[in-house]
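Researcher: First entry.
Model:
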Amino acid sequence: MDDRHATGPVVAGVVEAQGQEQVALRAAEEATRAGTGLRLMHAVERPLPAGSTAAGADGGTHADRAERVIAPLAAAVHRKFPDLAVEPDVVSGLPAPALVDRSAGASLIVVGHRGTGGLPRLPLGSVSLQVATHSRCPVLVIRPRKGAEPEVERVVVGVDVDDMQPHVMEFALRAAAARDAPLDVVHGSTRPDLLGTGPTGPLLVAREKRPSAAKDLLEERLGPYRSRCHDLDIRTRVERTRPAHLLVDSSRDATLLVVGTHGRTGLRRLMLGSVSGEVLHTARCPVVVVPPPEAEE
């Protein structure tokens, strides 16, 4: 993440739907933790989407309707985070392009899992899916949690030992350190032969030795991170199973799940595949999708 993103505001995309206070408050928490401001963005589509009640009985301008969405959320944020600078941001048009545009100068985009253009089943073209795909900064998707929040914070990051993405690891390390939480580095694979790469090409490992060999390789790749972040509890979990299944299972009682957006098991390449779909559909905690540095895109 470049300096512009690191110092930019947290932008929360809010809609007229249930659960938006949770989105706003989580965004405020992230902004407070990062020491930056919060922007509550609401896009007013023209014409209003079918079924919307934003017009109200008294009509009013599009800005008036948007203000009625943003005002109670801003008030809720001020009650819990009185010192946080909150800026309303009303745009006219489709929400996904507006959020993607804001991502160029934001440190984090926060969206809900459902609502108008939200993420109930991740249909192609949904706002959250579009933003996670095209955002230039990390995107936090607030997943519904069944039951109480975990008593102990824990951050999970999904990796591929064949394609470790430094920007994803760096985000996960910062997230864990900011929360004084352990970091679980998770790798799963069902590929029959390819485990890693050596100086002459792919490493072929006997089937019965694959899990332990993969763990050894992951531990080796994590060596520099452990040396640099010696105060952070970095743990590993390696299993021969579908990556999405392992990530979802690891998200139980987690504070945050961090994934990348490209690579062999990344979101961009498998946009409609099992890994991205299952993680965003069924993770048991909020999910952060971290894009590659702009120079790599």
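Researcher: Second entry.
Model:
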Amino acid sequence: MTIKVSDIGEKELIRYIIANSKHITPDDTAITQFSDTNLISTCDMLIQSRHFPDNMSYFNMGFKSVTVNVSDLAAMGAKPIGFLLAIAMPKDLDVDSFKEIIQGVLEACYFYSIPLIGGDTNEASEIIISGTALGVCENPLMKDTYGKGDLIAVTGDIGLAALGFELETLDNIYTNKALKPIARVKEGQILKDFATSATDITDGLASELYEIKKDNFGFMIYEDLLGISDEYKQICENLGLDYLDKIFHVGEDFELLFTISKDNLDTLAIDYKVIGEVTDSDVVELTLENGFVERIENRGYEHYVSE
């Protein structure tokens, strides 16, 4: 029986690549010794039909193509130094639409202080944007260097983008987060000196927790620490949605998920929210508001998986 990529999914494909390469780390970026520091490099591809909602402007498509790459640098605590843009598009795309995409890219590069230094163009049946971001960091943060007793925290509210994708109305906190996410670059550069590990939340909180989990360690998340507003719960109820499902299993927040020792917590000069702790349970769990404990399912957004 022939196994197809849809049978195993994106993460398993990535594990295969990492296992067969001597130079790739399990993190979302490559780390290369460079002079007296480290060159941090990452690339991310966005496809119009899968990554850009129908109500996303061309400008925000361009902006997001930078954000998704810079977010990987932020998770390592790296300082951005350069961005490469490869874009493929239909030959009948309006020139004004192309210019709007590029304006979004340039605005994002200005916002993150990362110059556009090169790239490529090609033809495709839909818009495909592949970015490569470069940064530097002497002591980059890794995903799995936490210890038992470390606290688990995030740099902001999560689940906002997931709900924003469900709403038709524009210009609110939810759709703004979904259509124009922001990478936490400054926060990452501060966290590198205090956190024990970090990653960015792109595929959902649950997926990221399982991604950083190592043997003999577990995570306990507390619902009452997530700070879920009554408004959020009410909107989900009105739409027939499970609010915890949106928070744990959708993603696109681009907040940083990090671990930190209790001793270093008060030294952080950033906004953050403690949501749990590292345990030795070897499972990922959630303590509900009513006190019951349940396992958190390992799922989130993943390419290739059969529906």
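Model: Note on the second entry: The radius of gyration is 19 Å.
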